[in-house]
Amino acid sequence: MTSPADWDVVVLGAGAAGLMAGLRAAQCGARTLVLEKNARPGVKILMSGGTRCNITHDCDNRGIIDAYGTSGKFLHSALAAFGVQDTLDFFHAAGVATKIEGPGKIFPVSDRATDVLAALVAGLHHSGATLTLGEPATDLIKTDGGFEVVTPSRRITCRRVIVTTGGRSYPGSGTTGDGYTLAAKFGHSIIPPRPALTPIVSPAPWVTSLRGITLPDVVLTLTGATPRPTVCRGALLFAHFGLTGPVALDLSRWVSGSPTPSQLTLAVDFLPEVREAELDAWLQAESLASGRKLLATVLADRLPNRIATTLLALCGLAEDRRAAGLSKADRQRLARAIKQTVIPVSGTLGFAKAEVTAGGVPLDEVHSKSMESKRQPGLHFAGEVLDLDGPIGGYNFQAAWSTGWLAGQSAASLALDESRTLGLTR
User: Fold this and answer.
1) CB 383 within 8 A of CB 404
2) DSSP 8-state symbol, 262
3) Which among 181, 195, 210, 260 is most buried, taking Cβ atoms within 10 Å?
4) What is the CA radius of gyration of the chain?
5) Is the pTM of this model over 0.85?
6) What's the pLDDT tens digit per position in 18-62?
7) Helix (H) or strand (E) holding 289
8) How many Å separate Cα 412 from the centre of its chain?
9) How far apart are CA 34 and CA 18, in angstroms?
């Protein structure tokens, strides 16, 4: 007869998905252990959103699914089990009031990621789960009764394991890709990890000279990295290395996925609300009505002054050029520059500055209704270790909460069923 395991469920990693998986597994009645290799849990939660933690997005579950594109269908069951409203209810019940910023980002009113983490840790302890810190899983071995988790100090037996070790983004927080090795050991193929939601590097001096300038609404179009141009719209920030801000971060996964990023074409539309023909007509009218004004001053009515003078230089027009006598060719060249300036690209700042990881355990190797491996029964995955990365705006945290909750619920239910079948119920 199979001997009892030390635990019903062991969760590897106490990040967003792991904490949620652990507390849900324990809520469902499973003896649950959460192992974290860091000296404290949720390090990446504390770093996220500029230490504010963008908890989720202001939309329904369908909005989360749509934001993930073709991968979104994988989240149907997870969101049905624990969706956007469930997330808000959970944190509100824990005393974390929330607010909506910009185009739908939801943050704690306190602007403190520490409040989010405290709510999760309190929920974990209240559930009855055990959290052990500073104890990494160095190996995972399949046994007749489940698994044996090997750590530097002991061997732990359990019915089921949930891998929530994250990806490789922000490696300083401990996310160094440990879960990929464990997944591969049990037959999973690993889609090569690459940084996503990371700043884009440009070698152009004119780009880096604009550092510090923020534009609240631009359109960036990337061509060459995918079968069709990829377009994103949002705020853009120029930095000493190139580009950051939501619109650049959202495009970065395709830049990092290209073997030759310098061959990509990145075009910026500085005034997406205005058509190029309208800009040409406006410049013509200003040339007639405001001829004594500097052309840079005219442009500064619609664009930051440093952007205006940079565009003049890119068009071969002098900074002290007057608006009067602007030729049709000059007008059209300037209007085109406002709408289609090409920004050279050389790469990204990589995993060190990436908010999430693209790649990981393929979704078609995991049961979406239970988060259980199709390669190894009893092994579950949740969170960033999966090949599931969404745009900026709280989508990735929502996927972590939802897949973690479903993995914990499924693993607990199945572990308890197995114990009852073997006559090992407590």
Assistant:
1) yes
2) G
3) 195
4) 25
5) yes
6) 999 999 999 999 999 999 999 999 999 999 988 999 999 999 999
7) helix 276-289
8) 28
9) 7
- DSSP secondary-structure letter at 196? E
User: What is the CB neighbour count within 10 angstroms for residue 178?
Assistant: 20
Predicted confidence (pLDDT) per residue in 117-166, tens digit: 999 999 999 999 999 999 999 999 999 999 999 999 999 999 999 999 99
Q: Which two tokens stand for residue 288?
A: 């007639």
Q: Is 338 exposed, middle or buried (0-12, 13-18, 19+ CB in 10 A)?
A: buried
**What is the mean pLDDT of the segment spanning 267-283?**
96
- How many CB atoms are located within 10 Å of the residue 213 CB? 16
Which alpha helices (DSSP H) does 8-134 contain, by range?
Answer: 16-27, 43-51, 61-67, 76-81, 84-93, 113-127
C-alpha span between 12 and 413 (Å, rounded): 18
Given a contact cutoff of 8 angstroms between Cβ atoms, the answer to whether 107 and 52 are in contact is yes
Could you tell me where the beta strands, DSSP code E, fall in 115-224?
130-133, 139-143, 146-150, 155-163, 191-196, 200-201, 214-223
> Is the model's pLDDT at 173 over the cut of 80?
no
Rounded Cα gap, residues 202 and 343, in angstroms: 7
160 three-class SS:
strand
pLDDT of residue 425: 54
Please, what is the Cα angle at 178 between 177 and 183, to 5 degrees? 100
Domains and CATH numbers, the chain: 7-194+355-421 (3.50.50.60), 199-349 (1.10.8.260)
Residues 6+ apart with CB under 8 A from 250: 197, 232, 234, 391, 392
pLDDT of residue 1: 36
